[in-house]
């Protein structure tokens, strides 16, 4: 078999059986994994489920309820009526008990609140609003986790690029060291030049170790956010796209949370006002027991009871009114907090937009700096080959080229990260974010 065909088949087989965990995941895939597996999101989803179940329970508590009861009671004394002895009526008992020492009772009771000053209705509404509050919390937590994944992923990509650039710089130094050895043998260079190159290489090696450590930390952060090891894809600068994002403060998480809390507080005011009204309830029960309703016979019997109950608190030292005033004060507090948060969010968005525009304006500058650094490196290398430039000149040009290459790549990464931050601050849904 042709060796090339053999190698091609082997590579295809390895690719087919290579586990997904060893394949590089894109940023979108990393975000999707985090939304499915992040522990903070799982906890928030359970909090939402808890509120949803409580809202359903609150509604069902407004429906008629059926209760079963059973009890036994023993008393030590029972009232009785003693009759004087009458010779003409010998069949009459001398005494009649008006109760029983032992009482047995079972019952099935239906209860239903007919009117409570709309307190029940508003409690159900409040529980639904609390459920919606947790839903908003979940959406905001998803956006937060997504942005944290983006930041960690971009940070890891930056460290990958830094490692690539440093390795390229070390290769240039290594190539120059090989060349300087031959020049030293020919007496055309000094041993000091070799030491200078070794020192430059050691400095690059130190930077490489630091970059590798930072990459490991970024990968660990991604693993914490996603629940699994993420293999980072190499960064490719996305095509230039204009930025046309308008902030909608009312759709941002902090503003929506305060707005929902304000709605809940409005409902709490209505619940407080419900105490000014009477509460009316109806009940009906089926009972079976002994002696039942006939204390004289004292036999097992069944019977029914129905009725209505009315309760109305007429005086409580104005406690209800004070509670209502406290709820209204909380409502006004939330209103002021909403206005403050609106201003803060607008300021954060404007600052992020201004920073992105600054990066955009700097883009041509960093590209031009890289072009100049490459030209300088080319000239210095040529002059050094002719013995017209020193090792110091070479190290300086190499360092400037390294910094220029890093600046260009970092600048592109910063622009993509800043764009994601603008999406995060704009209030747009996560599905509408631009993730290049």
Automatic annotation (TrEMBL):
Residues 1-24 form the signal peptide. GO terms for cellular component: cell outer membrane; efflux pump complex. It is found in: Cell outer membrane. One of its GO terms (molecular function) is porin activity. It comes from the Bacteria. It holds the Pfam family OEP. Keywords: Cell outer membrane, Coiled coil, Membrane, Signal, Transmembrane, Transmembrane beta strand, Transport. Residues 24-58 form a coiled coil. Belongs to the outer membrane factor (OMF) (TC 1.B.17) family. PANTHER family: OUTER MEMBRANE PROTEIN TOLC. This is Outer membrane efflux protein. It comes from Caldithrix abyssi DSM 13497. The gene is tolC.
